[in-house]
Design brief:
Elements lengths: L5 H11 L4 E6 L3 E5 L2 E5 L3 H6 L5 H11 L9 E5 L6 E5 L11 H16 L17 H4 L11 H11 L8 E4 L8 E4 L2 E5 L6 E4 H15 L2 H15 L7 H14 L6 H20 L4
Antiparallel strand pairs: 1-2, 2-3, 3-5, 4-5, 6-9, 7-8
Helix pairs in contact: 4-8, 6-9, 6-10, 7-8, 7-9, 9-10
Length: 285
């Protein structure tokens, strides 16, 4: 069993006493249950050194901001930054990752939550400004997916992203809002986790990310139904623009593995169809 280092364990004892600790899993962070709390250890030294969106201090700022809002995010208990493996100790939000079977319930509840997030005023929280993961100065020119059968779709996307983005009033965004970040209590959302990339930016990025994920898991029709659900919950109708769909898809392209089997090929085809749909929605002229 991989436990946090001795310094972190001593810090935990000072914070909560001799609570039982047990691993919960490894992803971007190592997760541990600490009694009724959750410890997130930022263990990836390479990302800590190079990735501006893998910053525990940023997540701590977001959680402090959300503490006085209706957004059901974890509550920050303690933060440890002066360590090669910094860590956050938070409350555990209730629920399981199993969403409701009815897509309409999923859309309605997720839209209500996203509207609540977007209503939070981030002024004074010290959050960073949104920037795409893809940086032409570092990553070079965008490259065509080798598997594509519709290269014109990607070329039109690359051309659109080389231009100026549409104006969008900035607000608080989760940046990686999708169903796997939500914990469910039946048909209600118990909480939303993983705020490392929370920042101030165009709300359309959150709309793009959740809809791309819905298109891949539930189909395009369900993904498109998210927009009216969000408009109803938020009273906002101007946050979506196909440019943000394409910008988010361009970021997703960075991490997408080459297809190795039929399932991966089908997912690639859905992804490409989603990009093609966004390209066709771009304003003419």
């Amino acid at each position: 069993m991989h436990l946090p280092n001795a310094e972190t364990l001593a810090w935990l004892r000072d914070a909560v006493g001799d609570a039982a600790i047990a691993p919960m899993g490894v992803g971007a962070n190592r997760l541990y249950s600490v009694g009724d709390l959750v410890l997130r250890v930022f263990h990836d030294a390479d990302r800590l050194a190079s990735d501006p969106w893998y910053r525990p201090e940023n997540e701590a700022r977001v959680l402090r901001l959300l503490a006085e809002t209706p957004v059901p995010a974890p509550e920050l208990i303690a933060v440890r930054l002066d360590d090669p493996e910094p860590a956050l100790l938070t409350t555990r939000v209730p629920g399981t990752p199993e969403p409701p079977a009815d897509p309409a319930v999923l859309l309605g509840r997720a839209a209500e939550l996203l509207a609540a997030i977007h209503a939070v005023d981030p002024t004074g929280a010290g959050l960073g400004e949104y920037a795409p993961y893809y940086d032409p100065a570092v990553d070079g020119a965008r490259t065509m997916p080798t598997w594509t059968t519709r290269p014109h779709v990607w070329q039109r996307m690359f051309t659109a992203l080389a231009g100026e983005p549409p104006y969008a009033a900035p607000g608080l965004i989760h940046r990686d809002f999708h169903a796997e970040q939500l914990l469910w209590l039946g048909e209600d959302i118990g909480g939303i986790v993983d705020w490392t990339t929370g920042c101030v930016g165009p709300r359309g990025i959150d709309l793009a990310r959740v809809r791309l994920n819905l298109a891949l898991t539930h189909g395009v029709a369900v993904a498109e139904d998210f927009l009216p659900a969000y408009a109803k919950a938020s009273g906002r109708t101007g946050d979506h623009h196909p440019y943000w769909d394409l910008l988010d898809a361009g970021d997703a392209l960075l991490d997408w593995p080459e297809p190795e089997g039929r399932e991966e090929i089908v997912e690639w085809q859905r992804f490409e169809a989603w990009v093609g749909r966004a390209v066709r929605m771009l304003p003419k002229g």
